[in-house]
């Protein structure tokens, strides 16, 4: 996680970008994934898968963390009861992270791009549960990380496409179609892409 601190000093060119897994992606954990890159520098990169769900429900997570009691879950607003918990990646899978709009800030909040911030403390979960959190947010358990030069090598080897991230595609809750919609958004025909890499 030190990469987050170093990136605040020296922003990498992939900060605030989407990585879109190519059909030829050999790592099953990242097949058909969309990743939002939060930090990129000479030391490596880190980001969050935004189109995979965790089996855990948000109210259960709040109870597990002691934010609310079990009997309070029924009193959560409907949108909070259905707030998705996403699988951010294979690293540190028990740790929670919240990507959110910049209308919520605490001391531990780190800006990622002009409009997007990252908070990884329990305070933001209390705020979300109490309807006082950011206007847009997504939560993940775990993150995706790369060592120095690793992500660049994967891009060169045709493992990922990159494109600027839009707030709409980052925060929308239509997980099932996000991969295809993002490819369409950047003008990529998936069927042609599959054929093109199938003979590589």
Overview of this protein structure:
With 200 residues, the protein is α+β, with helices and mostly antiparallel strands. It has eight helices and nine strands. It has helices at 2-9, 58-64, 78-81, 122-129, 150-156, 167-171, 178-185, 190-198, and strands at 17-21, 34-41, 44-49, 85-87, 91-101, 110-111, 116-119, 137-146, 160-164. Strands 1, 2, 3, 4, 5, 6, 7, 8 and 9 form a nine-stranded mixed sheet that branches. The longest helix is centred in the last third of the chain and has 9 residues, at 190-198. Residues 195-200 have low confidence and may be disordered.
Measured by DSSP, the beta-strand proportion falls in 25-35%
Please write the string of helix (H) and strand (E) elements: HEEEHHEEEEHEHEHHH
Overall helicity: 25-40%
Q: What's the number of structural domains?
A: 1
Shape: globular
Indicate the low-confidence ranges by residue numbers. 195-200
> Rg to the nearest angstrom?
17 Å
> What is the tally of beta strands?
9
Report the structural category. alpha+beta
SS field, number of helical segments: 8
Distance between the termini: 35 Å
The major pleated sheet works out as: 9 strands, mixed
CATH fold assignment? VC0467-like
Mean pLDDT: 88
* CATH architecture title: 3-Layer(aba) Sandwich
- The CATH fourth-level homologous superfamily: VC0467-like
The CATH class is: Alpha Beta
């Amino acid at each position: 996680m030190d990469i987050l601190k170093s990136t605040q000093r020296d922003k990498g060119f992939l900060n605030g970008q989407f990585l879109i897994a190519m059909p030829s992606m050999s790592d099953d954990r990242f097949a058909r994934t969309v990743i939002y890159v939060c930090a990129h520098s000479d030391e490596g990169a880190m980001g969050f898968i935004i189109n995979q769900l965790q089996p855990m429900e948000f109210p259960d997570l709040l109870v597990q963390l002691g934010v609310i009691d079990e009997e309070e879950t029924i009193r959560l607003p409907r949108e909070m009861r259905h707030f998705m918990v996403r699988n951010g990646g294979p690293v540190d899978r028990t740790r929670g992270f919240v990507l959110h709009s910049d209308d919520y800030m605490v001391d531990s909040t780190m800006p990622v791009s002009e409009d997007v911030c990252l908070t990884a403390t329990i305070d933001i979960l209390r705020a979300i549960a109490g309807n006082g959190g950011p206007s847009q947010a997504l939560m993940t358990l775990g993150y995706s990380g790369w060592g120095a030069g690793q992500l660049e090598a994967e891009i060169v080897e045709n493992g990922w496409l990159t494109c600027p991230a839009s707030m709409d595609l980052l925060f929308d809750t239509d997980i099932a179609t996000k991969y295809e919609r993002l490819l369409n958004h950047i003008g990529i025909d998936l069927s042609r892409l599959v054929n093109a890499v199938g003979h590589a």
